[in-house]
Amino acid sequence: MNIGENLKYLRIQRNMTQKEIAKILGVATNTYTQYETNYRQPDIGTLVKLADYYMISLDILVGRMKFTA
């Protein structure tokens, strides 16, 4: 999986919209949509916010490690 796929997976697992996650991050909905579609990559500060929000490591978020169920 890549970052965009991971972000989409995590968001859907929590039953949230792209707009809700974008608001949490303080970015435009369009910007967040671009993260999920891999058109744009989040900067390191945004990645840290996402990892903290989802309570996962950066390695899992960026696809270096797999999710465990």
From TrEMBL:
GO MF annotations, alphabetized: DNA binding
Keyword presence, RNA-binding: no
CDD domains: HTH_XRE
Tree of life domain: Bacteria
Chain ranges of the HTH cro/C1-type domain: 7-61
Pfam family, one: HTH_3
Keywords recorded for this protein, A-Z: DNA-binding
The protein's name in its UniProt record: HTH-type transcriptional regulator ImmR
Species: Ruminiclostridium hungatei
